[in-house]
Amino acid sequence: MDFLAALKITEKNSGVSTGNSSLPAHGELIVSHSPVDGKLIATIQAADKNDYETVIAKAQTAFLEWRTWPAPKRGEIVRQIGDALRAHKEPLGKLVSYEMGKSLQEGYGEVQEMIDICDFAVGLSRQLYGLSMHSERPAHRMYEQWHPLGIVGIISAFNFPVAVWSWNTMLAWICGNVCVWKPSEKTPLCAVACHNIIADVLKRNDVPDGINGLVIGGREVGEWLSADSRVPLVSATGSTRMGKAVGATVGARLGRALLELGGNNAIIISQHADLDIAIRGSVFGAVGTAGQRCTTTRRLIVHEAVYDTIKTKLVAAYKQLSIGDPLDENNHVGPLIDKDAVIGYQKALEACKKEGGRFIVEGGVLEGKGFESGCYVKPCIAEVDPHFNIVQQETFAPILYLMKYNTIDDAIAIQNGVPQGLSSSIMTLNLREAEQFLSANGSDCGIANVNIGTSGAEIGGAFGGEKETGGGRESGSDAWKAYMRRQTNTINYSTQLPLAQGIKFHV
Ligand code: NAD
């Protein structure tokens, strides 16, 4: 496969790197099979604890120098990385699609997201502003400035195997931090490829070796990072189960955790919606990436007046879906990541039926030619009661739950009535209900859209969610502040020492 060669992926790869070069690894052998056709792509030697220690030590040393580089100079490195990613967009996009299973268009889109965040970070490297304040004391000056934290540990999920890492890393770098990445063990080659692409840029610019640590391994590597007080910030993307564990461990040492966890996203379709947009947004949101986006549409809350029409249109739209090899651009839906995910999907279907769910588009596992990997499933739709247990949970698969509402207040209550709080939307042309949905007594999610589905965020906005989604914000807006420490400075240029609040103290 040409794209592997272009990314310098060989049969056997090391899962340990300090950035400028990969190091020998001593952990278990990870075997990466493609969910597309079940074939072996390559192997990766994972890190053991000693390898981890080597990477952390190198990162600590690199930080001492990297933090002294002016931020715009750090931005220049990120600019060159953006160019390197542009040059590798095609092979990296193909690898993302082949190792993770998302469509080729989405694979390319993910690399484009990396390029976009590089551009954003370059501009930001000249805009790490602090405020200046008026002191209550005469001849005093007060301001705040932002300094880097040190090592940022990044734990990432399989479903965005490269973009989420870059959201964190590009921002962390321009802020003056060094990064250590623990990618998902389900998509390790995507991580190796990113490191290979970037190593040349780092070496060419004499960037201190250690700013771009890579430690591939299972969840234990994530646990090492979480417990490590040399890592002031752990940014973790994955399931709520994982986030609760990471949050507790990092919290116990009073470190900082940036958590991007599971979603259970809904679209409200009002009787005032443009039904064509509503259907298209819902179908893409529900079946795109085979339902394996954190922002996947899992629930459709439909007004009773348009419920039957929506139902008919959805069933018709699902009939048009073609399932198969995601590298073939004629297909809409690719495989799930692995057979465990297929089991999770089957269990959810059973649970839904048991609770009384009625399937209007039946699910099932596909077999036969083209489906040999055993990871292809049918996107399905069930009519449910919003309070079913299964509807409260995130099943990482293309299962769409359909429910009815009567008033906009009810719809918002149903939308908010789950433990997660990532993405939400309303399809309506009615200004009043759109604004109500966006108001403080509207959606309780980190993302709330109007006439757009729940998935497909742009990098310019801060990305993340509330409640069991973890509360973290990454990417655009002022998310960069999570990667820095704020220092408040007060400077006295008078000949006196006046105390704040007018306190008198004479010696
Ligand atoms: P996962 O939780 O199984 O694994 C994510 C990462 O955490 C992996 O690298 C894994 O090795 C590591 N990990 C697992 N347990 C750990 C522990 N106890 N301590 C430290 N690290 C641990 O998730 P997944 O199956 O790879 O990804 C799917 C999940 O990720 C979904 O819930 C999805 O919604 C979520 N996700 C959220 C966002 C977001 O931005 N909110 C983005 C992508 C994915």
From TrEMBL:
<dbReference type="GO" id="GO:0004029">
    <property type="term" value="F:aldehyde dehydrogenase (NAD+) activity"/>
</dbReference>
<dbReference type="Pfam" id="PF00171">
    <property type="entry name" value="Aldedh"/>
</dbReference>
<feature type="active site">
    <location>
        <position position="260"/>
    </location>
</feature>
<dbReference type="InterPro" id="IPR016163">
    <property type="entry name" value="Ald_DH_C"/>
</dbReference>
<dbReference type="InterPro" id="IPR016162">
    <property type="entry name" value="Ald_DH_N"/>
</dbReference>
<protein>
    <recommendedName>
        <fullName>aldehyde dehydrogenase (NAD(+))</fullName>
        <ecNumber>1.2.1.3</ecNumber>
    </recommendedName>
</protein>
<comment type="similarity">
    <text>Belongs to the aldehyde dehydrogenase family.</text>
</comment>
<feature type="domain" description="Aldehyde dehydrogenase">
    <location>
        <begin position="29"/>
        <end position="488"/>
    </location>
</feature>
<dbReference type="InterPro" id="IPR016161">
    <property type="entry name" value="Ald_DH/histidinol_DH"/>
</dbReference>
<keyword id="KW-0520">NAD</keyword>
<dbReference type="InterPro" id="IPR044638">
    <property type="entry name" value="ALDH7A1-like"/>
</dbReference>
<dbReference type="InterPro" id="IPR029510">
    <property type="entry name" value="Ald_DH_CS_GLU"/>
</dbReference>
<keyword id="KW-0560">Oxidoreductase</keyword>
<dbReference type="InterPro" id="IPR015590">
    <property type="entry name" value="Aldehyde_DH_dom"/>
</dbReference>
<comment type="subunit">
    <text>Homotetramer.</text>
</comment>
